[in-house]
Specification:
Chains A, B: Keywords: Amino-acid biosynthesis, Branched-chain amino acid biosynthesis, Isoleucine biosynthesis, Transferase. The structure is a homodimer. Chain A contains 18 helices and 14 strands. By secondary structure, the first copy, chain A, is α/β, with parallel strands linked by helices. In chain A, helix 6 crosses helix 7 and helix 16 packs across helix 18.
Chain lengths: 527, 527
């Protein structure tokens, strides 16, 4: 059996990472992308913890997922509370998720010193919680918290915990290396012992990277019999992070003869890494395994002739296998075939314009070199393609804008007295229009001014709504003078799209992304 | 034998990393630091490759090193050239380094297809080169290039290569996982086979991280009998990087019962990581094992009481063991215990102000509810605490600012013609000051204006540098009118800090974060 199930926890354990805050729309877009990539399970969050997670479990039910199953995360019932009376378990059931994952303790001392209950009561909590959820017809994953520390301290009790979950009907028991401190030989030995004791039970593995061994520990568990691997995209997570699910998938598929997402979808690995990172307002580190911009970078000249003679000596795997490239410049669109496929997604048939494809690729590379990123900016990419094909018909053109922001006194708190005003001069067809908009902020003022200027000509602009706005500084070594990339997410009643603007000036970058967002929206409506 | 030798290649293989360029002085300072840390061998570079490396090997001889030995790096003699006539070997000898490390091929196909010579000639090159260098009285390390790929392809030939080096007297044979593609179970099996075949020979290991397993592969080699580990500080290196020598040292010392630098010097681990990173003009990634700023970070509130009851459940090792510190992340869930711990990190003793603690917690909660986040904004949190304790002494106060951004034409590309101008009116003590700054963007213009206004009073502001600037829109349902959170990272020569600003207006939010960044920087300098 070399099919290994993948279980993504980016939206739950990954979001524990400092600095990551995902909006509801972000979470839904990540679900869609991971589903398309072929991930088997996507853990969405704690269904009871806050309004955003509650709304997530409602909204996600409307997504037309092709493959992935959504998991809601919680704990076993509380001590001295019956499973059927437990509020947390009831929230899990109410979430509507087809899979529920509950974490329970397996380390004897943690039960007695932290949970402050008896070892027997903890076994009851595990058994009753799993049985109760199974009785609701749900698929149940039992996350055995601190299993490896627990096993080292008291193997009999740790085994009794997973046996209780197993006998109560848990579909998968995922052994959690919660502290991240174990080493591969320990993980392999302990998982093998569990697999021997419970030969019929599906086992999974959940690791953290505190010893720098999360990937190796996960692979060691698979060698010992685990068939489900938990992790997060790019290893995002608190402290040192979780297992990077994407690296594990690549290692399993390319080096251990296992199947996770399959050879074809594995070629999306790099773009999935980039998409999720950008959505989290982060970057894939340049030197990240498989997906980093430098992962297959070679010093020019030094090796070039040697690479040509004996490529296996310089690459542990072909970069194309994971959608990366041997060059420095990495893009989902780096090759003609992928650009054609991407364009087709956007409803543009590039195959009919073979003469333009190289020109477009060159332009994309040039733009990505100065800071554009089209991974999350389908709208801007579609406009760029239309422009190259001579099919771009702008709905308006700018003559100039001026933005003024005034502020008085340093209140130190959430001040509301700063005022922004934007004046734009714009042409629609042969008419010139001047409009001034106000806003709490300068981009809002520009947005208001633009809408005011064009609404008489394009009343449908009222249906186009900006829903998210992100800013990244691309060269952190030059502070506020650096290149700024703005990504705007916009939606109408049919869906949402991303657009990108780049400039040394945050207002100009915002304006460029804003123009694309409205242009693409009007173009969609017009089609 | 649990003494494991450490061999650092930061100055040679690490410098292959894109973006790292070390001056001669940088290299010498890193040598001194690694020597003080207790590294056994420090590979300094290629003594023949450029004037800087030639000068390095001269200058390093004058350093009063306490423990480390300097290694010069090169290759076996060229094909069809006698070892005593080989220019590269002569350069190694002339370097004056007491240790020479020569790399030689061990993968049959690489010999025939890339080196374009016979298998026998390659064996001669290895044997003669090692013997020649030994005859000069040098310590010789043989780096067996591509050993693991070579062994998998033709074990007999790979073994013949290392046997040739061994018989010629190599002091250490370091098996190189050159491509970075191997997995721990493969490395362990192959090193064990070599150790069995050459029981008297000292073996070492040199890995790269392309499969995300460099640390685990190095540990696996030690388990199989290697007693010397090569790596680079922070894993710096080309592609995905080398083995992070510091992580391996910590794992070996804390988890495998080995001795590398010893318990006492292990407490310098984090500062060595930071020192080398800063010298390379890079940072230690926040989520790096052992040494990252977040490696021992915990969400406040949620776990604080549990950590107090059972700390082993939340830390795989004590952060003090590696010179790092536990960080409590202040969040919406913060409790008193974690706030007090966090304040202590910042050098503020809240325990002496018990009456203020609840007031501060309430204020933090109120601020986090409107969008502030102090997880990544230690600087703003410190100022807030000072304010509550009546100890905040602002270096300047704002009367008003005005920002104007002008743009003409919609160029559609990376336009450079938008201009920003900021005028600020500010009070320092009883003096009023008006200054105007320009910038590529509005925040840069504000930063310039502020610095211009205060530099005469606080010339030390010139040492404070903005290095990163992030923006998040917090309520995705209201687009550009939403609450904006700006987080700025600032550094001086002693470290870096984060500050946060929140407003409906991105410029005002930026201003607030900017003021905190400068205020906190001036406060640090003043202390």
């Amino acid at each position: 059996m070399n099919r290994i199930l993948t279980y993504d926890s980016t939206l739950r354990d990954g979001e524990q990472c400092e600095g990551i805050t995902l909006s509801l729309e972000d979470k839904l877009r990540i679900v869609e992308r991971l589903d398309a990539f072929g991930v088997d399970f996507i853990e969405g969050g704690f269904p009871a913890s806050n309004p955003k997670d509650i709304a997530f479990f409602q909204r996600v039910q409307d997504l037309p997922l092709k493959h992935a199953r959504i998991a809601a995360f919680g704990s076993t019932c509380k001590k001295d509370v019956a499973a059927e009376d437990d509020r947390g378990l009831a929230d899990l059931v109410a979430s509507g998720a087809p899979v529920v994952t509950i974490v329970g303790k397996t380390w004897d001392e943690q039960v007695t010193r932290a949970l402050l209950t008896t070892l027997d009561e903890n076994l009851r909590m595990i058994r009753d919680s799993v049985a109760h959820l199974k009785a609701q017809g749900l698929m149940v994953v039992f996350d055995a918290e601190h299993f490896f520390d627990g096993y080292k301290a008291n193997a009999d009790y740790a085994m009794a915990c997973v046996r209780a979950a197993s006998e109560a009907g848990a579909d998968s028991i995922d052994l959690c290396e919660t502290n991240g401190g174990a080493l591969p030989h320990e993980v392999e030995a302990i998982v093998a012992a569990v697999a021997q004791a419970l030969p019929e039970q599906q086992l999974g593995i959940h690791c953290h990277n505190d010893s720098g061994c999360a990937v190796a520990n996960s692979l060691a568990a698979v060698r010992a019999g685990a068939v489900q691997v938990q992790g997060t995209v790019n290893g995002f997570g608190e402290r040192v992070g979780n297992t990077d699910l994407l690296t594990v998938i690549a290692d399993l598929e390319l080096k251990m003869g296992c199947t996770c997402v399959g050879e074809e979808r594995l070629r999306d690995l790099t773009s999935v890494a980039q998409f999720v990172a950008e959505t989290c307002n982060l970057s894939v580190p340049n030197h990240h395994p498989y997906t980093g911009a430098s992962a297959f970078a070679h010093k020019g000249g030094l090796h070039a002739s040697a690479i040509a003679r004996f490529p296996e000596a310089y690459e542990h795997t072909r970069p194309e296998a994971v959608g990366n490239t041997q060059r420095m410049l990495v893009s989902e669109l780096a090759g003609k075939a992928s650009l054609i496929a991407k364009a087709k997604n956007l409803g543009i048939d590039l195959a009919q314009h073979a003469d333009k494809t190289q020109e477009i690729l060159d332009d994309i590379k040039r733009r990505e070199a100065v800071g554009y990123s089209y991974e999350v900016a389908d709208g801007s990419l579609a406009l760029l393609l239309q422009w190259h094909l001579g099919a771009y018909r702008p709905h308006f053109t700018l003559e100039s804008f001026r933005v003024i922001v005034d502020d008085h006194e340093d209140t130190g708190a959430l001040a509301k007295d700063a005022m922004s005003e934007a004046t734009i001069k714009i042409h629609v067809g042969d008419q010139r229009f001047v409009a001034t908009g106000e806003g709490a902020g300068p981009v809002g003022a520009l947005d208001n001014a633009l809408r005011m200027a064009i609404v008489a000509f394009y009343p449908e602009v009222a249906d186009i709504e900006l829903v998210d706005y992100k800013v990244r500084i691309l060269d952190e070594n030059v502070g506020t003078d650096a290149i700024t990339r703005v990504v705007i997410t916009t939606r109408d009643k049919h869906g949402s799209w991303g657009t990108v603007g780049v400039s040394e000036n945050i207002i100009e970058a915002s304006w460029n992304a804003l123009v694309d967002s409205i242009e693409y929206g009007l173009m969609r409506i017009g089609e």
